[in-house]
Give the backbone structure.
Amino acid sequence: MVETLEQFIPYPIIALVIHAALPLAVIFPYVLFAIWMERKVSAHMQDRLGPMRVGGWHGWAQTIADMIKMIQKEDIVPNRSDKFLFKFAPYLAFMGSYAAFAVIPFSSEYIGAHLDVGAFYLLAVTSVVTLSIIMAGWASNNKWSLLGAMRATAQIVSYEVPTVVAVLSVIVVTGTLNLMTISEMQSGSIFNWMIFHSPFLFIAFMLYFVSSLAEVNRTPFDLPESESELVGGFHTEYSGMRWGIFMLAEYADMLLVSLLGTVLFFGAWNSPFGDFMSGPVWGVFWMISKGMVFIFVMMWLRWTLPRLRVDQLMDVCWKYLIPFAFINLVLIALWEMLF
Amino acid sequence: MPELRTEEMVINMGPQHPSTHGVLRVELVLDGEIVVDAIPHIGYLHRCFEKHSESMNDYQQVIPYVDRMDYVAAMSNELGYAIAMERMLEIEVPERVEYIRVIFAELQRIASHLLAIGTYGLDIGAFTPFLHCFRDRERILDIFESTCGARLLYNYIWVGGLSHDVPLDFKEKVRDFVKYFPPKIKEYNDLLTYNKIFIDRTADVGVLPSEVALNYASSGPVLRGSGVNWDLRRDDPYSIYDRFEYDVVVGKGEMGTVGDCWDRYIVRVREMEQSIRIIEQAVEQMPDEGDVKAAVPKRIRPPEGEVYARTETPRGELGYYIISDGSMSPYRVKARSPCFVNLSVLPAISRGSMVADIVAIIGSIDIVLGEVDR
Amino acid sequence: MKKPAEIYAILKEKFGEEKVEIKEDAKVAPWMVVAPDAIREITKFLRDDDDLDFDYLMCLSGVHYQKDNTLGVTYHINSTRKKHSLILKCIVSEDNPHVPSIESVWKTADWHEREAYDMVGIMFDGHPDLRRILCPDDWEGYPLRKDYKVQEYYRGMKVPY
């Protein structure tokens, strides 16, 4: 892909920058759409209509209007806060999730970086989000923020374990950490998808989905924010565009885990109909639409379920998910040896 | 290695906090996420309506003030005040008025419990039941609106009668609601009550044993949630509640211990079913003819004396202690508000729980700060 | 189920005539005047006696009787098992308004007594935490006294508007 760009653009450095910025072309419209969709999904589940005015058809321009409003807002930094960390935290949150998009194969032709340790890199770099949450919570100089940050750290660090083991289950089957190779292995028919590979991989997917919900702080695991207990958790003191960037990062994170789930279990950019509707451009379409299905499920859960308590959250992780994940890993390894 | 220093963190929950249901401030002493002590501070909404009433020069004009105590169950407040005054003045209220009052009081109970259940779901983190509850509460408010023009603060029940008659299609509307509502209760149960996460969050949390509940004089769903079979509608009958068949719901500890948050919650849900039963019977028995203002006194000048009357509002025992010195304005009005008393039990049941449990406990006590502070 | 007169007979026998006095002439229900120094023992007896079994303090109110220059505390108590109720009153002078706290008998008296202290200015001796409850801690005067004049300024804010 970089080579193609370099043919058109005289300076290689510009070609590289454009190449690196390409996922933004997906993320920004996606976030605008996802926030609108979240509002619509929640509204229809709650017997309401949701935004109906801005832009005409079903309020499609509501998020754009909100974004413009948010940019215009005053940038409030609390007086006794750690100003540098406070200002930097939202960017770090977005950096963490954006850096991970580098190894997501959006189509057979486009991937940011052909890393052979793609999956490993992705899991490592998303941990930066934890750091940003701690930074935000600490720098706000607000006890609620601090509590939220503590919860977030404990939660993300714990749930990283089942996530990693679930990813590892796929790696055991594919034998590679390169996400592009994993995608290519699943091409052909729908039955090559990892989810249909063995019953244990289906379990692995469920484990992955549950723990990734916790990774991106969605209900029922949205304790770091839990607006009814901790006011707003780690972003209590944030407003305007800085808060908006946290929001952006949260939705980008959702997309990231959904896309990773798609790559690992649901055939990445491969068409479900074999050769029909397949190709590099269709690949992007399939990738995004499979991801959106997961995002819809996340929204569905969010507007249905209550929230767990912090000790129950830890129970779910350490007493159920992690043992299951490990047993499952062993069983997958056995399955691979036998068949 | 030097010893690590640990200390407890004092944190103010409220007065601006999404889950304190108004302007309650709870001073929490935390050890990590564990609550060491919780000290409620109230009074942010204190208007001292008791002082205002003393210079009102008219007993009837106190009613708008009592409306504003428990502003989500204003009809029940008015009923309590009217009953206290009628006892003092020895007024016989016409049949028809009694039935309309009971129907409205029970509709108000449902509306208030819907709000309690909805916001409780919100406290636990489930947003959707809240709006479903509001959708149905809206139907009750529509009935109120068509009767007296107001949706929250009615000034409808007067001493000796009502401010005016119900609209012509009143019975029809109430019957429609009675038919419409029971399936919705099942919906809430499916969505929230028997949700595993919800049960985990509320069962065995904030356990209030029955002796403690009595010693703290809790009332209403809080007392019944602790398994005490006590309902003023049955045990200290007022109005015409002795004519209807209904059950008093008590908590049985189905999901955990008797007197936990889930019990207090389920008492409210089941009480709505019982209220529907009462409304159903009352609509059938209600006479069609009769002047609702027949017994309303032109001017109220009670003899010297005092009265204490209590009624069962959605939140518990609302008592009015009214002293008259024979003049046109009350000498002393004291409202024994159920929320004020129920809230005083908070420190006793929240020690040792977690921050998230405090939210669950406050929500399960179901306070309205307008009534706590009066 | 006992009538107030029967309860009075029991109390008179136990505590003596000078400690309790019944007023039958009251309009809605008869009430008893209890000497302040005996209120804690009497309420404790009312709570613990098996026949009386008053387990529920419904209401505790402070009243200012301006005509007599006295302050009163009214206790409305009730038994949830025996289903009878009783009204007790303690009358103290305006100059020395001290009543023993019954917080140790019924916990609910805690906040009620704080309210009576806040609003009428009755001192409850032996109360563990007698602070103002509804008004700010540094408010002046007792709002529900009949001769109450609102303060001009509260922390620099004009109060009567």
Summary: Chain C has a mean pLDDT of 83. The longest strand of chain C covers residues 56-65.
